[in-house]
């Protein structure tokens, strides 16, 4: 990978966001996902690279996919591995709710963990708490450590947790510490990344979400110097999801073994989930969110708001792009 790819990777997520945003609020979850997938695939095909999808999107949703193992790009140039989620938060997009975005992580060949389509227990925290909080500790212990690292009383801390039945006891424990819980319905990638920036009002992400999105979050937080840990969840009694109805703990363990995962209880650090020498994270808002705005369709232009984080030059770029329409006569500054 090299720096010349950064601009093109930005355009990949911008085009996916625009395509999906045209269906925002229409209640068309799969259609919005399909539009984002095709836009992302088309723009990737224009890049001079030997690209490969190592984490595809929507395997549980029966939605269209950039499938695992798919080759993208021109077929010449550097080898690049991608973890993609063309429409992260499809329900959010379908219902015009906050937090949907087009997102990907990219790295040198072999630089991203091939996460199975399982669930993952996650812990994301700011750089000041890196290596001090630990997913093996209780929520109470981690919140106390976080308070000390950030110099904030626990009552000022905001902990993001997915609003799921499996997190009932976790939420109750967090509240006993005095910390505040911010439940989210979908889209934990943006919440995890927000932990890497001061001033977002988000101090920690705890709980179980999808494993592939965990790798994308890890790539971003590694580049930001933040804390991220993930541990695969294979027990249906822990995941508590209808998607695993009829599956067993033993069957899931067998699936992991077939995938080459010999230690299903391993705790993965950010540097293991995104181990490449060069790592790039890119996201563009579909709907307004915590870190950036969604797509805005105007008379003479379309506006996108995006974030690119890169270890190639140690930057985090917040970008607003004005996509000028043919025949435009009046383009507002903001």
Describe this structure in words.
Helix 1 runs antiparallel to helix 2 and helix 6 runs parallel beside helix 7. A hairpin with a 3-residue loop joins strand 12 and strand 13. 30% of the residues lie in helices and 27% in strands. It is of the alpha+beta class and 334 residues long. The radius of gyration is 19 Å and the shape is globular. It has two domains: 156 residues, Fructose-1,6-Bisphosphatase, subunit A, domain 1 (Fructose-1,6-Bisphosphatase, Chain A, domain 1, 2-Layer Sandwich); 155 residues, D-Maltodextrin-Binding Protein, domain 2 (3-Layer(aba) Sandwich), CATH 3.40.190.90. The strands form two sheets. Strands 1, 2, 3, 4, 11, 12, 13 and 14 form an eight-stranded mixed sheet that branches. The chain is built from ten helices and 14 strands. It starts with a helix and ends in a 10-residue tail after the last strand. About 2% of the residues have low confidence.
